[in-house]
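Dear H.,

Thanks for agreeing to be a second pair of eyes. The structure we're designing against is below in token form, covering all 177 positions.
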């Protein structure tokens, strides 16, 4: 459905994850056609709609930077509103802060009110699931309900799916490594 590979990161220290997941929508190895992005969004949305844990959402929340493209693709496919959590600390009210372990910049910020919202999280890949659990915890503490997590790629070496299951968060992916 979607090709992806593990690629070694060069010049990173001990605190940075040494592997990056590269997939055909990220534009790293080759040009990406808009129709590929739209098709992936439709496939991921259809897969989520058929998932046994499917529940409606009010808002998509994507993660900077890898989650931007899949979030837009799913937003177009589902005709959903979206927000992006950014690694930029802005002087805005109602700021939610969570951490992305094993990244150069650890803090990630989601802006706006989440109380009472049903949130469907979208990212490009899941490995350990730690970033997603940090986000889930912050959103729940802010009064949001998490309906699920959609990812283009699941890297099974990190146990992310199992971690999400412990927090009762369903995961839906297009490709598994």
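And this is the sequence the design step returned. I haven't edited it by hand at all.
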């Amino acid at each position: 459905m979607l090709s992806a590979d593990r690629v070694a990161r060069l010049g990173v220290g001990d605190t940075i994850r040494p592997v990056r997941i590269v997939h055909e929508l990220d534009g790293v190895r080759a040009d990406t056609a808009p129709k590929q992005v739209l098709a992936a969004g439709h496939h991921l949305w259809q897969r989520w709609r058929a998932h046994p844990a499917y529940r409606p959402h009010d808002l998509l929340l994507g993660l900077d930077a890898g989650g931007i493209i899949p979030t837009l693709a799913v937003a177009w496919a589902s005709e959903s509103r979206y927000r992006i959590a950014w690694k930029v600390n802005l002087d805005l009210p109602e700021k939610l802060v969570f951490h992305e372990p094993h990244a150069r910049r650890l803090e990630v910020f989601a802006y706006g009110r989440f109380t009472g919202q049903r949130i469907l999280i979208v990212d490009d890949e899941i490995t350990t699931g730690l970033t997603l659990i940090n986000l889930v915890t912050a959103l729940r503490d802010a009064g949001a309900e998490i309906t699920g997590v959609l990812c283009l790629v699941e890297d099974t070496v990190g146990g992310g799916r199992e971690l999400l299951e412990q927090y009762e968060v369903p995961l839906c992916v297009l490709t598994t490594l």
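Two observations from my side: Residues 62 and 71 are 5 Å apart (CA to CA). The beta strands are 4-8, 19-23, 59-63, 82-85, 95-99, 107-111, 118-126, 145-154, 171-176.

Warmly,
E.
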